[in-house]
Amino acid sequence: MKRTICLLLSLLLLSVSCANTGSTSDEPGETSASPADDLAETEAAPEETAVPAPDLPEDMDFGGAEFTFGVVENPNAKNAIVMEEMTGEVLNDAQFTAIAETSEALNVQIGEYVMTSGYPAANAIIPLITAGDDVIQVANVFCVDAPTLMGKGYSVDYAGVPHIDLSKPYWDAGINDSLSLAGVRYAAIGDLSISTHDLTYILLFSQSLVSQNGLENPYSLVFEGNWTMDKMKSMMETAMLDANGNGERDAEDVFGYLAASKMVLPSFWIGAGEKSMEYDESGAPVLSMTDERFVSVIEKIFAMTYDNDARFKTSEDSDVPTACRDMFATGHSLFLDCSLFWVAALRDMETDFGIIPYPKYDETQKDYCARVSYYMPPMIPITNVNLDMTGAVLEEANYRAKLHITPAYYEISLKGKYSRDPESISMLDLIFQSRVVDLGDTLFCSNVRDGFMAAMYSSDNRDLVSTVAKNEKVINKTVQKLIEGLQG
């Protein structure tokens, strides 16, 4: 009976996903997709591929037990896991179906608890843990909250959770490689974690400005392996224009690049194949920013974003500033630093744009690298009294997410609604295959990216080696305290 219901739900979702009609928008006042969107949805309809099912016992039944995901609300990503009902919106219905099938397969009642709508989530869950309340079985917190929970010994090592098989394709192997500290796996990311998709950073380029300035096709450069920092710098400088003729650089002019100040350095250094933190032989993260190549990367970033006035400087501290989005939408910049979540805000932009990864350092770099800035690690509180159920639910839910949520998000919602040409779709395939998590940009973001690196960039301080030396001792103490908490 369980499998029959699951099959019916799957067929229902498939009929919704593949229908060649304008999908209901999640934006107010918009009732249908454009003909171009309909065509894109038809071209991007997901192909059925064999996804290996979880290796769970056939007779697994938890007798209707309650299982609760803790989530946070955040303006930069979709963090909700449990949808209340089917609405006809493709992504919503895919999420609803994945959870409904998981509930039916394991006989559990899956719910959601909003821990907080702001920072930090650790403050919301720690009182529950210290009180011994098993209210939340899996807490999806901000990544910067993870060190607090681990350091206090409040999280469970995934290595001791039964039923989870991280070799399965519904777990993200590339990202999960970065989610262990000193041999302890504090979280595991799978297809259920939409926020990790939303917080993947890319470059948007204005196709009209490329054409007007006679620039090389960015898609061709990427496909040929020639999309480099030097090439981007040259294109940025060519596109610059004093549009109002006042001899000053202001918001009415055309710029080469738009980005929040704190996002500039990490977006480029990760694109160049570098990480601010690596693991030492004991599995402890250490700063890794002073070798010759990393220093050269930083020097290039300053040269292409400071020395030529090609970047519009905004004091807005949001991840993708409103001013930057508005300027890009009205043709005032060639490139825009943007997360996949905020691409949706540009759906009504009249001028066509394209999607590409950040450039390589040079042509000798083998692969492009796409930055995942922030994520919501699903941590298991030590108050969890049923790890058997927890492992089964996570394994089953990520499997169901692979079947339903990922096709809806990636193939239809993202490709169909937001990208505007076949090349963008190929770019998205490349970007999702090249995602990278840098601990200094995520777990230790407040210390590294938003700490001394943000201060270094905003003050035009280019002495990376001295800056790292001044901050290394504090970072090492922070890491050591965290590891002691883990081991204790």
Quickly count the domains. Answer: 2
* CATH architecture verdict of the largest domain: 3-Layer(aba) Sandwich
Kindly state the number of beta strands: 15
Gyration radius, rounded: 23 Å
Q: Compute the number of helices.
A: 19
Name of the top-level CATH class of the largest domain: Alpha Beta
**Class per helix and strand makeup:** alpha/beta
**How does the major sheet shape up?**
5 strands, mixed
pLDDT average, as an integer? 88
- How would the global form be characterised? globular
Q: What proportion strand?
A: 5-15%
Distance between the termini: 46 Å
Q: Widest sheet: strand order? A: 10-7-11-6-12
Walk me through what this model shows:
The strands form five sheets. Strands 10-7-11-6-12 form a five-stranded mixed sheet. It is globular. A hairpin with a 5-residue loop joins strand 8 and strand 9. It folds into two domains: 2-197 and 376-403, D-Maltodextrin-Binding Protein, domain 2, CATH 3.40.190; 201-371 and 426-487, D-Maltodextrin-Binding Protein, domain 2, CATH 3.40.190.10. Helices cover 42% and strands 12% of the residues. Helix 1 packs antiparallel against helix 3 and helix 18 runs antiparallel to helix 19 (464-487). The termini are far apart. It contains 19 helices and 15 strands. With 488 residues, the chain is of the alpha/beta class.
Strand and helix layout:
Layout: H1 2-18, H2 35-43, E1 65-72, H3 90-106, E2 108-116, H4 122-130, E3 138-140, H5 146-151, H6 173-176, E4 180-181, E5 184-185, H7 194-198, E6 201-206, H8 207-212, H9 218-223, H10 229-239, E7 255-258, H11 261-271, E8 277-279, E9 285-287, H12 292-305, E10 311-312, H13 322-329, E11 333-339, H14 340-343, E12 353-356, E13 370-371, E14 378-379, H15 387-403, H16 405-417, H17 422-432, E15 435-436, H18 448-458, H19 464-487
Parallel strand pairs: 1-2, 1-3, 7-10, 7-11, 13-15
Antiparallel strand pairs: 3-14, 4-5, 6-11, 6-12, 8-9
